[in-house]
Amino acid sequence: DHLLRDIGISRVEIWSATRFGRG
Questions:
Q1: Cα separation of 9 and 17, whole Å?
Q2: Residue-wise pLDDT tens digits, 1-23
């Protein structure tokens, strides 16, 4: 669960950063 949660959070951060950063 911890690994999945870390991966999910990191993915969300990258996604949000990419979307808000470029958009």
A1: 12
A2: 677 777 878 888 888 888 877 65
* Rounded distance between C-alpha atoms, residue 9 and residue 1, angstroms: 12
In order of 13, 20, 21, the CA distances from 16 in angstroms are 5, 6, 8
pTM of the model: 0.34
CA angle 8–13–17, rounded 5-degree value = 150
| Euclidean distance between CA atoms 20 and 23, whole angstroms | 5
